[in-house]
Amino acid sequence: MPDRDKLMQFVRFCIVGTVAAAIHYGVYYLMQLFLKGGVWLSVDYTVGYVVSLVCNFFMTTHFTFRSHVSAGKAAGFGFSHLVNYSLHIVLFNIFVAVGIHRLVAPVLVLMVAVPTNFLILRMVYR
Questions:
Q1: What is the pLDDT of residue 115?
Q2: How large is the greatest C-alpha to C-alpha distance in the chain, in angstroms?
Q3: Which is it for the CA torsion 113, 43, 105, 89, positive or negative?
Q4: Do 60 and 16 touch, CB atoms closer than 8 A?
Q5: Phi first, then psi: what are they for 25, rounded to 5°?
Q6: pLDDT-above-70 percentage for the chain
Q7: Is 88 in contact with 45 (CB distance < 8 Å)?
Q8: Contacts for 6 with CB less than 8 Å, ≥ 6 apart
Q9: Could you say which DSSP state residue 65 is in?
Q10: What is the DSSP letter of 4?
Q11: Phi and psi (nearest 5°) for 123?
Q12: Which of 27, 63, 99, 126 could be joined to 48 by an S-S link, Cβ 3.0–4.6 Å?
């Protein structure tokens, strides 16, 4: 893949990641707002993650990697996000435990999780 194509793929990944992160954070924030702190922080966070995950799969497949949906890609995407979700929950709970506000912690989590997920997904969509 030529350098320009790699760069554009990364740019598309960043766009999709930004949209997915906004969906994730938006759902989480709305649950916090309307449920007055939610039932459990991790449940609210997970609901946001799942909604974002579904949107992310289709955007990543069609827009980022210019590919088509298949069972293999769905499985690889699912695996990458299982790893990614684990990283999210562990980091989120660590950040909250050390005193970072529950509405700021997700932003910090994304700074680690997004690049990690990109590296895994590049292997899935080869």
A1: 84
A2: 50
A3: negative
A4: yes
A5: -65, -40
A6: 97
A7: yes
A8: none
A9: S
A10: H
A11: -70, -40
A12: 27
The rounded mean pLDDT for the chain is 91
Helix (H, G, I), strand (E, B) or coil at 68: coil
Tokens for 49?
């993650």
Which range (9-13, 27-31, 66-70, 115-119) has the least confidence? 115-119
CA-CA distances (angstroms) from residue 41 to 8, 71, 88? 36, 32, 13
For the ranges 2-11, 31-40, 76-85, 98-107, which has the lowest average pLDDT?
A: 31-40
Phi, psi of 27 (to 5 degrees): -65, -45
> Using CA atoms, how far apart are residues 86 and 3, in angstroms rounded to an integer?
32
Query: What is the value of pTM for the model shown?
Result: 0.71
Q: For the residues of 16-45, what is the DSSP string, one character each?
A: HHHHHHHHHHHHHHHHHHHTTS-S-HHHHH
- Within a 13 Å sphere around the CA of 69, how many CA atoms are in the beta-carbon half? 7
Mean pLDDT of 94-100: 98
Mark residue 40 as left, alpha or beta (left: phi above 0; alpha: psi -120 to 50; beta: remaining): beta
